Structure formats: structure tokens, C-alpha cells
Amino acid sequence: MDHGGSLERARALFPHAPEPFVDLSTGINPHSYPLFALPATALSRLPEPARARGLGEVAAQAYGAPSAAHVVAAPGTQILLPLVASLARPGLARVLSPTYAEHAQAARVAGHEVEQVEHFEALGQGELAVVVNPNNPDGRVVSREKLLELAARLHAKGGLLVVDEAFMDVGPGAESLAGDVERGGMVVLRSFGKFFGLAGVRLGFALADEATARRVDARLGPWAVSGPALEYGIRALADTRWQRQMRERLAKEAARLDALLARHGAPVRGGTSLFRYLEFPGAAGLFSALGEQGILLRHFAGRPHALRAGLPGTEEEWRRLEAALASRAGKRDHPREEPRP
Predict the structure, then answer these.
(1) Cis peptide preceding 15, ω within 30 of 0
(2) Which residues of the chain have pLDDT under 50?
(3) Which stretch of DSSP H or E encloses residue 219?
(4) Closest listed residue to residue 332, CA positions, set 287, 265, 278
(5) In what helix (H) or strand (E) does residue 272 lie, and over which residues does it extend?
(6) 54 & 190 share domain
(7) CA dist 299 to 139, 179, 294, Å?
(8) Quick one: 128 and 64 in the same domain?
(9) Do both 151 and 230 map to the same domain?
(10) Residues 246, 255: Cα–Cα separation, whole Å
(11) What order of strands is seen across the sheet that includes strand 268-272?
(12) Nearest to 255, CA basis, from 175, 311, 307, 305
């Protein structure tokens, strides 16, 4: 599975699993921002420029960008990946890996030769460098100081640093580069749908110096963000009380998940409060065992010892996960005896 969140693929993998699936394969908040009634004009008319400017202003404040002129709204960050990668002249792109696979693919689409590297120090040798911070799937965090030094080196030779901060809403905010984008040589990506649990809204942002932001905005063209997405973005990004309470809730639930997994021999090695990263020899067996019980985790091609687990959204889902883990443990402790000849 190249991405989490596909119940269609889950049913193909585990056709006899009980439904509904408990989908823990994504890093999307299971407690979404409250839905509300949209004005009819959000659907019946093209978005007004003033409303789009309003979204830019509230996003700049929420993310700590210097101003709305440094913010470009888009229909999800996915569409921004190849567009931003094309801002650097075609050449060598290096992606700090293992990480979200679409960055490497987007760089190839933009005409770059792509190398995936495991050491931060190797990133400065290309025209384009990509860092996911906090990283997906293991939660690794690179310090702001190191990222600024890399951005300056790349900028001096006409290169570009792209920092994907899709999970910075639940990460260490002091390490964000959002407030530094006016220095140039960097683009910061922020995702709306993950933290607010509204992935279907399709809303994301590129933060950059003003000239770069204008280039990105021109490539997207008018009315890039739908009316409903504008309304949800403006209200949710301004709701600091909900955001503060949600961060506290997610931290508690991540600790609860860690304890539950540890009790059943699945140690957590990292992650964020939206997903936990597991790496141990029995990971492939755990993925299969839980899948047969209708509990879907995220596994990775070529890395059979790694898994990512999102948070259950209800107490019923917590009970199903605990029961499935206990059932697996019981089968290991009491293996079925082979019939005697």
C-alpha cells in the first residue's frame, strides 16, 4: 500500500475481516473540527478574492508567517509538491529519507534527478533539498538552526530547500521555519486536513518569500481553493481554543496508545501525537493479524519491520484494538497443536 487510508485496498488484502474497519493507517486526526452549515454562496458562486485574502491572513497568523503576502493557499499540499520542486532549476534533488514517497516522485516530475539520502549533511550537494519535519513516518525532527544553515547554503548557489511541515501542528513549534521564509531559499508546506481531521476539504499552504509566493500563486491560477475549503480554513485556523485543547487531547491519546502497544509486545520507537512509529521483528505479523480482525495499520514496501499506527477515534475502536492485540498474544502463547498422526 503506497498510502494509508484506502479501505478499498484494505478489503482486497483482508477480504474476510469484520467491518467496519478500524482505519489506523493514516496520520489524520480522528477527532475532526466540528462541521458547520456553509453559506449557500460557498457552493453556488466562485470564491471572492476578498475571502481568499482573509484565508491568507488567518493562515499567516496561525502558522507564524511574516504576513499574508508570504502565504499561498492551494487545494491540498499534494498538488504543490511538483509545482514547488519546479522552482529549482532541473538538477540533483536530494530527499532526506525514509519519508513520504511523493516528494521524490514530485521532484522527478519536475525534471530532477532524485537521490534519497539518510544523512542530513548530504542534502546540500544538490539544487533541491527536501526535509519532512517532523518526519513521516518516524517523527524525526531536524532543528531550525540546521535547516536555516542548509537553506542559506542552497540559496547562495540558486538552490531551494523545501520543508514539509505537514505534522508541525503537533510538533515542536520552535523548530518551524514558517517565520523565516522571507530570508529566501526555502518553501515551507503546511497541511490543513491532518491536524483538523478534514482531509476531504483539500486545503494546504505554501509559505515563502513574497516573490516566490507570487510565482506559486500565479501557477495555481484564480479560484484555486474552493468556497467550502475557504470557509473551513478561515474558521478552524482562527479557533485557537479548539487547537489548544486538541493538542492536549492528542498527546494523552498517543500516550495511551503507546502503553497499549507496549503491553502486547509492540514497542513504539517514535512518531507524533497523530501517529506512532513501530519497528520490531514481528511487525509484519502484527500487520496481518490485526488486518484479519479489521484493524488496519500502515505498512511499508521494503521495510517489513516498520509500521505506523494512527489513533483510534472512539472507545469502541479502542476496545476492538485491545481485543485484537490480546487475541494475537493468546495465539502466540498457546499455539494450535498439530493433529497427531
Answers:
(1) no
(2) 1, 334-341
(3) helix 210-220
(4) 265
(5) strand 268-272
(6) yes
(7) 16, 34, 15
(8) yes
(9) yes
(10) 14
(11) 268-272, 275-279, 303-310, 298-300
(12) 311
Q: How far is Cα 110 from Cα 188, in angstroms, rounded to an integer?
A: 18
Q: What are phi and psi of 54, to 5 degrees?
A: -60, -40
Instruction: Identify the pLDDT of residue 330.
Output: 67
pLDDT, position 333: 53
92-96 and 128-132 beta bridge pairing: parallel
Q: Please report, as a single letter, which amino acid is at residue 99.
A: T
Concatenated DSSP letters for 256-270? HHHHHHHHTT--EEE
pLDDT at residue number 63: 98
Per the structure, the complete domain to which residue 304 belongs is given by: 7-32+242-333
In the chain, % helix, strand, coil (3-state, to 5) comes to 45, 15, 35
Same domain, 121 and 74: yes
* Sign of the torsion formed by the C-alpha atoms of 192, 194, 197 and 199: positive
User: For residue 193, how many C-alpha atoms fall within 13 Å in the half-sphere facing its CB?
Assistant: 17
* Nearest of 118, 112, 94, 248 to residue 170 by alpha carbon: 248
